[in-house]
Design brief:
heterodimer; A: alpha/beta; 7-stranded mixed sheet; 5-stranded mixed sheet; 12 helices; 12 strands; B: mainly alpha; 11 helices; globular
Chain lengths: 264, 222
Amino acid sequence: MSRDRSILPWRSSLLALLGLILCAAATAQTPLRIAAAADLEPVLPPLLDEFQQATGIHAEATYQASAALTTQIENGAPFDVFLAADVSYPQRLIGEHQAQGPADAAEPLVYAHGTLVLWTRTDAALPPPSLKLLRSPALRRLAIANPDRAPYGRAAVAALTSLKLYDALKPRLVTAGNIAQAAQYVDSGNADAGLISLTSALTPRLKSAGTYFVIPRNLYPPIEQGAVLVARSQQQAAAKRFLDFLLSHPIQAQLAKSGLSPAK
Amino acid sequence: MDWQAINVTLRLAAITTAVLLVISVPLSALLVLNRARWLAALEALTSLPLVLPPTVLGFFLLVLLGPRTAVGRALIGVIGHPLAFSFSGLVVGSVIYSLPFAVQSLVAGFASIEPVLIDAARLLGAGPVRLVFTLFLPLARRSLLAAAVLTFLHTVGEFGVVLMLGGDIPGATRTLSILLYDQVESFDYAAANRTAGLLLVLSLAALAAIYAGSRSRGGRNA
């Protein structure tokens, strides 16, 4: 008998502990999960903090190439919002009924436009970046992102093609997996120059190490960055609020400062 | 089928295996024969490439071999261009990346040789070079085979280092694994399945042939 009594408090306290854990798990807010294209990595973190201050909704972002995120969402990754680096990936998900646009369900929301720049290190023995540099024989290796899957890579090839330089430069191109890696190729000195995103060129590290030249916008089709709501998400309302926040005036102005020009 | 990528991959794996065997046979013999304490540090160092994520290892190599470090500048002075984005750069990366696989197999093989035999050979006046050629390699030939096969396969399947260091240049640095990644990322699953299928069938056939050969010669270690 005495033995039983000594066990009982143990059991009840264990049960109580279990109950507490279950309650905590049930009440803990699941964060809003955002799948974000790699070019947003230098841009998004402060915006997420502001979003939490404004709405009380805690949001967490995962940064990857748009193609990889698309595959993950197709295969059930638990994201609520997808911010891609172009509109083709969100359109693909809409076509598969895996996502929908916030206003018109069939159209991704364009939340920003990307800007392509030519970037070189200041200590490279090259003239400052300009269209003339692209024609210079001193340019031995030019880094771009993979045109088959990175929107900025596609824009880079389009710009070189409009300049009728693509065939001449093709043997001197090195292709990086994504736009951030293309920037690394130039920053590490292994490539002389790179066609990278303005968002990368404006990060503190690249800003202090080099200079950039904005590629004229008429040379490549606009890099429209599209967003969609993931169909499987349990937090549609919060996800919509996030996209409204992203399109709000002050946030669009902040995006412009970090290298993404306004959606409209 | 992209024969260019297959060619780059097989050439890279073969050259890496050859270079690594030349480096790791003496290195492993040193680790087994010499009991000095400081060699523990060397042995630990050879295993380190296993710890770093391959893309990170590739990133460090990219920076180290680039023109912004003394090592990189010296190399560029000798060969005239940065090692990154070239086939020889990939060989350097692959040798470092697969070093643990070669050394671990060889050390295990050499260490399992009866110490009595080594002592006897030494008493008869055999120096370390002779020990390696007449005792270690014949008795540990199965480990040598394992080291070669592991290095070869590991290089064929290498991805992160090549992704960072290679620059995806057809005919020079676009290997099968990079091609496969490109195909998967551009949603060309049919092409990816063909490439992956070919890679698996080729590897299985080559491995079966190697192991069948070593069985028929009775090549197991005593």
